[in-house]
Write a structure and sequence with these properties.
The chain has 118 residues and is mainly α. 58% of the residues lie in helices and 3% in strands. It has one domain: uncharacterized protein sp1917 domain (Helicase, Ruva Protein, domain 3), CATH 1.10.8.290. A two-stranded antiparallel ribbon has the order 1-2. The model has no long low-confidence stretch (mean pLDDT 93).
């Protein structure tokens, strides 16, 4: 049930939490956006449109222009679960983003967060 609730939330309702988490650790909204761009392929305009349209999380990931193939290099634990062990595709995409934001908040360099790309 909780999974369904996450999928049906708007990405716009989750996005401010990612930004706040980053900003609490002296990182920026632009860095959060860079992570989202890298992971999903949404450019700035398309991301803004998704936020304005209140696109639900499930649709946000399902309609992503280009899920980065290097995202499979994202490893580790989020919410007590190993990201690489999550079988449900949408939940795995959500947790990939959660993990990247966690790394940003922990002070990791952007090129490492983006798995070697700039």
């Amino acid at each position: 049930m909780a999974t369904h609730r996450i999928y049906s939330m708007s990405f716009a309702s989750v996005y401010p939490h990612y930004v706040a988490k980053a900003e609490r650790k002296n990182r920026t909204r632009a860095e959060v956006d860079d992570i989202i761009h890298w992971l999903t392929g949404y450019d700035s305009q398309a991301l803004s449109e998704q936020l304005t349209q209140q696109t639900v999380v499930e649709t946000f990931f399902a309609q992503a222009p280009h899920l980065n193939p290097s995202r499979v290099l994202i490893k580790g634990v989020v919410c007590g679960v190993r990201v690489e062990d999550i079988e449900e595709p949408t939940m795995r995409e959500i947790r990939y983003l959660d993990k990247l934001i966690d790394e940003l908040a922990k002070g990791k360099a952007m090129n490492k967060i983006l798995r070697g790309s700039d």
